[in-house]
């Protein structure tokens, strides 16, 4: 468990807070590229790390991310005119480019050089994987652009969606790295009828998706082993298969808030990011990639930009306000929760803990080892920042090769020899 002070240190992300400054040392997702579909399109509001910003795509197709408030009289630039390579405030016509420079000030005399002395906060931005990435830290410390494998795939082989959630970002990330909950929270009750199912893939190698489901449903208390790595941690949820093998689900957690949940090879590659909007809300970005083919129109339609679905007003169909439309009859007969959708099940539980859960009242078990490690890393980074030390960068030389993994291996095999960076000296058991 964490103390009250540690919990606050880990979850407060606004400007000037230790954790907020740690997160500002990394490229962070600001918005979806699809929100800015064409040059000179309407700007969009962005709120991340407790800051209110405006994103726009200029005439040249470049994305800018500016302070929401015009430095003249503090009017919102969301109402601005996106025209001729800049965003113009409609109050007095002051215009700013993507670098934050004031390039026009028509309300001042023509001979005035006042515009050359005015600048608005602007954050560097670039696009990859259908996401606009921003850097909000000191300019001298800007890291290289990210090279995760999924971010380098062609656009038609990548799909991204984003969910808004009413809780702190750490709660959702902890849910993503919790290997034991899948045998409960995401369980279909008809898994009880899988005892006779055998498609021949309970053998060394890669199981079918259905066999993986059977194994996870039959073995709900996995052994958890964690390794510290140069990028964060990777860990395995280890289960015994009906035929006596080891079933590995290896997940990579990349500091500070990226996660790659275990996948079978035919499921492609993916990356999740838990981006704080402020202390008590966040966006979960899910970026999925196919290595050998494009996504079909049906797949894009099914998963979409907001997988929970929305009503005619853009409001999610299921949320805390309607108990995520839990169906108690379905809970008795169909699913463990009675809530439709894996992502919605996760969200219902993490939001039920309140916006910032009181971790000092928890009682953690052996299957919480990965969560304990990730919390320790976040708290330590915040404390080290307070002492004047910068957080560790994501190693550029290995970023592209980080992957999650799932496989059936011999009963006596060392799981650390499987998956990305298997057996490398940089990894040590914690």
What topology emerges from the helices and strands here?
Elements: H1 4-11, H2 18-23, E1 27-32, E2 44-48, E3 51-57, E4 63-67, E5 81-82, E6 87-88, E7 95-96, E8 102-104, E9 125-128, E10 131-135, E11 158-165, H3 169-176, H4 209-218, E12 223-228, E13 232-240, E14 246-254, E15 258-260, E16 269-276, E17 282-289, H5 297-303, H6 328-333, H7 342-352, H8 369-386, E18 405-409, E19 428-429
Antiparallel strand pairs: 1-10, 2-3, 3-4, 5-6, 6-7, 7-8, 9-10, 11-17, 12-13, 12-19, 13-14, 14-15, 14-18, 15-16, 16-17
Helix pairs in contact: 1-8, 3-7
Descriptive account of the structure:
With 430 residues, the chain is an alpha+beta fold. The chain folds into two domains: 30-141, Rieske Iron-sulfur Protein (3-layer Sandwich); 149-429, Naphthalene 1,2-dioxygenase Alpha Subunit, Chain A, domain 1. Helix content is 17%, strand content 23%. It is built from eight helices and 19 strands. It has helices at 4-11, 18-23, 169-176, 209-218, 297-303, 328-333, 342-352, 369-386; strands at residues 27-32, 44-48, 51-57, 63-67, 81-82, 87-88, 95-96, 102-104, 125-128, 131-135, 158-165, 223-228, 232-240, 246-254, 258-260, 269-276, 282-289, 405-409, 428-429. Strands 11, 12, 13, 14, 15, 16, 17, 18 and 19 form a nine-stranded antiparallel sheet that branches. The protein has a four-stranded antiparallel sheet with strand order 5-6-7-8, with no helix packed on it. Strand 14 (246-254) and strand 15 form a beta hairpin. Helix 3 (169-176) crosses helix 7. The two termini are 18 Å apart. 40% of the residues are buried.
């Amino acid at each position: 468990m964490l103390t009250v002070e540690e919990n606050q240190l880990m979850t407060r992300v606004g400007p000037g807070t230790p954790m907020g400054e740690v997160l500002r040392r990394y490229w962070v997702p600001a918005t979806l590229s699809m929100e800015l579909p064409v040059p000179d399109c309407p700007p969009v509001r962005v709120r991340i790390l407790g800051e209110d910003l405006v994103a726009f795509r200029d005439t040249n197709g470049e994305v800018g991310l500016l302070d929401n408030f015009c430095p003249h009289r503090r009017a919102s630039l969301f109402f601005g005119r996106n025209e001729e390579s800049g965003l113009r405030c409609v109050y007095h016509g002051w215009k700013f480019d993507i670098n934050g420079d004031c390039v026009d000030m028509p309300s001042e005399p023509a001979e005035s050089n006042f515009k050359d002395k005015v600048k608005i906060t602007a954050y560097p931005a670039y696009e990859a994987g259908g996401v606009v990435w921003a850097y909000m830290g000191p300019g001298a410390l800007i890291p290289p652009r990210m090279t995760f494998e999924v971010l380098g795939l062609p656009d038609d082989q990548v799909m991204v969606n984003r969910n808004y959630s009413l809780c702190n970002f750490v709660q959702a990330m902890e849910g993503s790295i919790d290997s034991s909950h899948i045998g409960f929270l995401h369980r279909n009750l008809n898994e009880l009828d899988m005892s006779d199912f055998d498609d021949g893939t309970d053998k060394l190698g890669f199981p079918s998706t259905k066999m993986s489901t059977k194994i996870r449903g039959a073995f709900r208390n996995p052994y958890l082993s964690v390794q510290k790595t140069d990028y964060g941690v990777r860990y395995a949820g280890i289960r015994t298969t009906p035929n006596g093998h080891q079933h590995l689900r290896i997940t990579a957690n990349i500091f500070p808030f990226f996660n790659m949940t275990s996948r079978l090879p035919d499921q492609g590659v993916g990356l999740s990011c838990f981006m704080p909007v402020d202390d008590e809300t966040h966006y979960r970005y899910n970026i999925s990639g196919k290595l050998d083919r494009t996504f079909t129109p049906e797949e894009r339609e099914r998963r979409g930009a907001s997988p929970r679905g929305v009503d005619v007003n853009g409001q999610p169909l299921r949320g805390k306000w309607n108990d995520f439309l839990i169906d108690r009859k379905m809970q008795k007969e169909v699913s463990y929760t009675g809530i439709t959708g894996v992502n919605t099940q996760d969200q219902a539980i993490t939001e039920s803990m309140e916006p910032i859960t009181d971790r000092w009242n928890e009682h953690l078990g052996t299957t919480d080892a990965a969560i304990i490690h990730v919390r320790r890393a976040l708290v330590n980074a915040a404390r080290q920042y307070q002492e004047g030390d910068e957080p560790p960068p994501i190693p550029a030389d290995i970023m592209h090769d980080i992957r999650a993994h799932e496989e059936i291996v011999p009963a006596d095999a060392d799981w650390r020899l499987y998956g990305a960076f298997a057996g490398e000296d940089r990894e040590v058991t914690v």
